[in-house]
What we know:
This protein has helices at residues 38-60, 64-82, 89-96, 105-126, 133-143, 182-193, 202-216, 223-237, 249-254, 256-269, 272-309, 315-327, 333-340, 344-354, 377-383, and strands at residues 7-15, 18-25, 330-332, 363-364, 373-375. The chain is mainly alpha-helical. It has 2 domains: 7-293, Orthogonal Bundle (Fic-like fold); 311-383, CATH 1.10.10.1470. Strands 3-5-4 form a 3-stranded antiparallel sheet. A two-stranded antiparallel ribbon has the order 1-2. Strand 1 and strand 2 form a beta hairpin. The longest helix is centred in the C-terminal third of the chain and has 38 residues, at 272-309. The chain is globular, with a radius of gyration of 23 Å.
Amino acid sequence: xxxxxTGSYVSGxxxxxxxxxxxRPLPLPPNPQIEIDxxxxxxxxxxxxxxxxxxxxxxxxxxxxLFLYTYIRREAVLSSKIEGTQSSLSDLxxxxxxxxxxxxxxxVREVSNYVSALDYGISxxxxxxxxxxxxxxxxxxxxxSRGRGADKLPGEFRISQNWIGGTRPGNAAYVPPPAEDVPxxxxxxxxxxxxxxxxxxxxxxxxxxxxxxxxxxxxxxxNGRLGRLLITLILCSERVLSEPLLYLSxxxxxxxxxxxxxxxxxxxxxxxxxxxxxxxxxxxxTAEQAVATARKLTVMFAHDRKVIEDLGRPGxxxxxxxxxxxxxPVLSLPLMQKRTGLSAxxxxxxxxxxxxxxxxxxxxxxxxxxxxxxxxxxxxxTLGADE
Length: 387
């Protein structure tokens, strides 16, 4: 449904001698309200089923923490790649064990910040903290705490004009509302998230809140990453998901051009239904991929464990080392010793077994003769974040 413009153009500050023409959105929910026809209802129902399967899959995993540890890091890599970083999952895991990554440290530090911000946000929700602007600011503060963006007011809404694309507001693809309008706009978004003036179904709430957040663009930097994270936070806070296992970064990266076109169509034409349809398809596709990945990893863990157990006595120490690779897929020899409590010679023997032609479960990653680092290669390949 084309409602017409969902906001108004207002004059912002003069920048480089030009008068800024910025877009100030109307509060949510849309007026007229969202039109849920039979097709959209059916797609929503299928998506809720897919989300239910994802939630059930997380409950069936032998240890959800094993999956979450690396899955969250995969999302951090993919979300940051959309913003231009070159870091891979292996780079991040190397960085976390104090080994030099294969890309500039600023890139991988930015990804590491994302992991910390996501962990913080989810833990606060689990502690009963409401999904609020205060929490978003705290998450943003962590997101931009180190490296690039540390000078872009971490944890504070912007107090100056920003824009998307172009070299100045005059040739930008989109200019968000002036800084003085941000507090009111973001306050209205918070009310909508908390079902004021009316309750909104979780999927539609996540779709609308995301597009509104991107439209307000309340921070000087990090809006894209936090806007994508907001989707997961809403689904968790609404109890649609019990664990943070759904991230749309791959889907939005794959359909990047359509994504930006739809955001702009919402602003200019008010076609929320078209955006919601795209969003719901992405959630369903992503949920189904996550379930398939969880199942594949469960089968892989069981297979590799059995192969090691079938070795008998020689495999006892190798199994202890392998168990640590399930928790942390990239480890150095000293870390293996520390985590398993095994001696250096015993760890070396276990690694020799796990890297042997017969098993090939782990692989040396750095090519070094000393201070070697090993990775659970099939695990990393299954997650696919090194592409």
